[in-house]
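Quick illustration for those who missed Monday's session on complexes.
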Amino acid sequence: MSPEQDKPFLDERSSMVEQQLHCRGIHDERVLAAMNKVPRHQFVSQYNWPEAYADHPIAIAEQQTTSQPYIIASMLQAAEIQPTDRVLEIGAGSGYQTAVLAELANHVVAIERYTTLTEEARRVLDQLGYTNVTLVTGDGTLGMREYAPYDAIIVSAAAPHVPPALIEQLAIGGRLVIPVGNAQQQMLEVVRKQRDGITVDGLEGCRFVPLIGQQGFAA
Ligand code: SAH
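Prediction with S-adenosyl-L-homocysteine bound:
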């Protein structure tokens, strides 16, 4: 391995956490520590390593992107993930957020629509030694009933509305974080499920790639 490949990017990572996350109101210590630990550059092509810790999304295969670090942190903080939680992630993409979730939760079930992305994400997650992740290719708008209910569900792609299957598979007391809107802009919504129904809070404006599936946008 060349010295450049070996570079651990420790300084870039800690300044990302301090300047992009902490300074902008991410205060959950577990989220900050997890994002200070996961080597984000490993989830993007080596060509993109110089910008792996920059304040913007990065292109990955299949014309998708790995989200901006701040928006990932904001979603994870809103999901209030506990070490005992079982979490569902829709839109695993590069697997970067999957790795951060694996640091925060007990078990992560992650769904990605493209086989190429699932395979590459699995390779990196295996290489980094994450054993508490179940990564599958499929339509995440339907969730994954097999492992439900989930204490938290994170959707990393823009939905036209909250997919009913995901509300159904959320545990009582569970949190679902999802960008809802049109293809151009969305609102990050936090859906909480209680015994007597659900509540929805808008967190902030955002822009994600579309969630394509039976309970999402048409392909
Ligand atoms: N958190 C990821 C974000 C990837 S972008 C990361 O940081 O890398 C969103 C991903 O959602 C894309 O990879 C896209 O292919 C995927 N996606 C879109 N619709 C989907 C669906 N119905 N089920 C599963 N994944 C979907």
